[in-house]
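Hi R.,

As promised on Friday, here is the backbone we talked about, encoded as structure tokens. Could you run it through your design pipeline when you get a chance and send me back a sequence?
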């Protein structure tokens, strides 16, 4: 084994909240601990969960008492937050600061202070973002281009994500690595009995799981589902997830009279995800890139 590293994983999104970034950080920390490295996680408090807590395998988590203002993100101050980050880095003798998620203000501030203190900084971008809407313009100009200016390394979860991140942040492509999300496909093989029982011996079921929001491309379902159903009468859909676009999808189903061919499940607990995925032969995971859609227009 090589040199033991002291790593701080920082994000607004972590346990007990549930989501892709939260799960990624937790299992990344567990794998790094098993490899012999010393790892801590820095996030904001959740309700009464504040201070220092320990999770499995001795994973140390700092739940900082920051105010959450929107969608799980905190109201941070570069100057005001510096003492607490400096204290944590000094106490833990941190060598690498690893921020997660473009929308995490804690990640950007933590990496900035890490760079000021001479620490190595790494950033993982988990999602695709557009270029035309107001939130994307603000995020790309302020957070990405300025926050990542002194970054040592960036990691993306797909090659499309790498291209998107390089264009938004103007990073040197040689600084950006791609580590695709891993999945054990054997765990999600279609269950024929489940499919025939639920969908009247229908041979083709398409399953979509994800947040029904614009950023995840959920609005595209309103265009795709009627076309597929009109062309292939044997196809049925299962849609799991909730969000602002759910109303639009339900209205589309009423207009096209597709309620019997599309089943809306709403928000799903994590332990039910596999049982839904195995009901279909085709799975959809939405992503929306504004510049790609503009090109099509």
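Update: got your reply. Pasting your designed sequence below so it's all in one thread:
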């Amino acid at each position: 084994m090589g040199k033991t590293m002291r790593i701080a994983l920082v994000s607004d999104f972590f346990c007990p909240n549930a989501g892709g970034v939260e799960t990624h950080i937790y299992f990344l920390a567990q794998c790094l601990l098993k490899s012999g490295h010393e790892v801590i996680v820095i996030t904001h408090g959740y309700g009464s969960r504040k201070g220092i807590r320990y999770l499995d395998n001795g994973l140390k988590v700092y739940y900082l008492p920051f105010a959450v203002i929107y969608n799980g993100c905190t109201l941070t101050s570069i100057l005001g937050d510096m003492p607490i980050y400096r204290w944590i880095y000094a106490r833990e003798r941190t060598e690498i600061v690893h921020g997660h998620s473009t929308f995490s203000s804690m990640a950007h501030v933590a990496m900035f202070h890490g760079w000021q203190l001479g620490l190595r900084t790494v950033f993982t971008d988990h999602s695709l973002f557009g270029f035309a809407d107001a939130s994307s313009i603000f995020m790309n100009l302020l957070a990405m281009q300025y926050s990542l200016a002194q970054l040592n390394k960036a990691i993306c979860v797909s090659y499309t994500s790498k291209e998107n991140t390089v264009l938004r942040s103007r990073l040197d492509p040689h600084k950006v690595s791609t580590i695709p999300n891993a999945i054990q496909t054997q765990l999600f093989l279609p269950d024929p009995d489940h499919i025939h029982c639920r969908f009247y011996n229908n041979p083709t079921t398409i399953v979509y799981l994800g947040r029904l929001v614009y950023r995840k491309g959920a609005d595209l379902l309103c265009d795709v589902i009627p076309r597929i159903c009109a062309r292939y009468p044997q196809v049925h859909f299962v849609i799991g997830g909730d969000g602002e676009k759910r109303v639009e999808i339900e209205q589309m189903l009423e207009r096209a009279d597709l309620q019997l061919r599309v089943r809306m499940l709403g928000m799903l607990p994590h332990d039910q995800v596999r049982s839904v995925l195995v009901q279909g032969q085709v799975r959809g995971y939405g992503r929306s890139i504004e510049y790609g859609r503009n090109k099509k227009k």
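One thing I noticed while checking it: Confidence is low (pLDDT under 50) at residues 288-297.

Thanks again,
M.
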